[in-house]
Amino acid sequence: MILDGKEIALRLQNEIKTNVEELKKRLINPALAVIQVGEEKASESYAKNIRREGENLGIYVEHHKLASDISEEELLYNIKNLNLRKDIHGILIELPLPQQINKTKVIETISPEKDVDGFHPINFGKLFEGTTPFQPATAQAILTAIKSVVSIEGKHAVVIGRSNIVGKPTAALLLQENATVTICHSKTRNLKDITNLADILVVSVGKPKLIDRNYVKPGAVVIDAGINKIDGKLVGDVDFDSVKAIASYITPVPGGIGVLTTLMLFRNTVKAANLQSKII
Ligand SMILES: Nc1nc(=O)c2c([nH]1)NC[C@@H]1CN(c3ccc(C(=O)N[C@@H](CCC(=O)O)C(=O)O)cc3)C=[N+]21
C-alpha cells in the first residue's frame, strides 16, 4: 500500500495552525529565516515548499537567497544578525554549502535556541541523549510516517545512509523508540543481505532506483527519503513500482516524507517561538 504523506499532513497542519493562532493572540508572529546559498536542486525544492507552506500556516518566512560565491565571513555575519533579531524565531541554513565555506563553523554559529533543524552540536548531542527541543525535521517526518502504520518497538530497522541531516538522526529516533537499528552506507558489504532482514527500511542516499524489490523483505515498511531530480522530475531512491508489490507500505516521492518534513520544520519553529517568549 502507498503510505500517503498528504493524509498525515492534514492532521499536522491543523495542529500547527491552532498553535499559530494561540501565539498570535499573544501578539507573537512566529517567523522562520531560511538561508539558501546557491541553487542545489534538493535545497531549491525545500525552499519552494517552505515558502508555500509558511503562507498556508500563517508563519512568516524570510528567504535569504545568497550567491554561491559568498565568503564565509559574510555568511557568518548574516547568521549573527538573525541570531540577534527578536522577530525571528527559527533559522534554517540549507545544506550542502559550497566548498569555500566551513559547514561546521556555520552550524555552530546558529544560536541553539533558533536552531530549528537541530543540527547545532548542543542539540545534536541532546538528540542522542533524548532531550533535544528540536528533533531534525526529516527524522521526525520519517518516524511519524512509520508510526502511522506500524509499531516500532522490537522491530529491526535498517537505515541506508549516514548523513547528519537524515541517516544519523533517524537512527537515533528509531533507537529511542526501541527498534533494533542497523545503519548501512557506501562501504557496507552485502547490503542486500542486511536490508532483507529489515522490518522497516529507511533509504536516504541520493541515488535514484538504488533499492528494488530484491533488497526488500516481503511485508516490510519502506520509507523513501531520497530527493533527486531526473529530467526535471522529482524522484526518490527507491524503485517505487518494483518495491510497491512486495512492501506492506511504501512512501512515494513526491508526496511522502518531503511534505511531512516541511511541516515538522514549522512545528519546530512554533516551538522555538513559544520557548523564546516564555517569561518564567
Ligand atoms: N539544513 C537542511 N535541512 C534539510 O532538511 C534539508 C536541507 N538542509 N537541504 C535540502 C534537503 C532536501 N529537503 C527537502 C525537504 C522537503 C522537500 C519537499 O517538500 N518535497 C516535496 C515536493 C516539492 C517539489 O515538488 O518540488 C515532496 O517530496 O512532495 C524537498 C526537499 C530538506 N533538506
Description:
The protein has 280 residues and is of the alpha/beta class. It folds into 2 domains: 26-112, Leucine Dehydrogenase, chain A, domain 1 (Rossmann fold), CATH 3.40.50.10860; 137-258, Rossmann fold (3-Layer(aba) Sandwich). The protein is 42% helix and 16% strand. The protein is built from 10 helices and 10 strands. It has a 5-stranded parallel beta sheet. The protein has a 3-stranded parallel beta sheet with strand order 2-1-3, sandwiched between helices. It has a two-stranded antiparallel sheet with strand order 8-9. Strand 4 (156-160), helix 7 and strand 5 form a beta-alpha-beta unit. The mean pLDDT is 97. Bound molecules: 5,10-Methenyltetrahydrofolate (GUE). 5,10-Methenyltetrahydrofolate (GUE) binds at residues 42-43, 45-46, 48-49, 92-95, 117, 137-138, 165, 227, 234, 253-255, 258-259, 261-262. 5,10-Methenyltetrahydrofolate (GUE) binds next to helix 2, strand 3, helix 6 and helix 10.
**Tally of DSSP β-strands:** 10
What is the overall silhouette?
A: globular
Using the 3D structure, state the CATH architecture of the largest domain.
Answer: 3-Layer(aba) Sandwich
- What assembly state would you assign to the polypeptide chains in this entry? single chain
CATH homologous superfamily name of the largest domain?
NAD(P)-binding Rossmann-like Domain
Structural class: alpha/beta
Q: What topology, given as strand order, has the largest sheet?
A: 5-4-6-7-10
Helix content: 40-55%
What distance lies between the first and last C-alpha atoms, to the nearest angstrom?
Answer: 47 Å
Total DSSP helices = 10
CATH topology of the largest domain: Rossmann fold
> Rg from C-alpha positions?
19 Å
Mean of pLDDT: 97
Report on the biggest sheet.
5 strands, parallel
Task: Give the tally of structural domains.
Answer: 2
CATH class of the largest domain: Alpha Beta
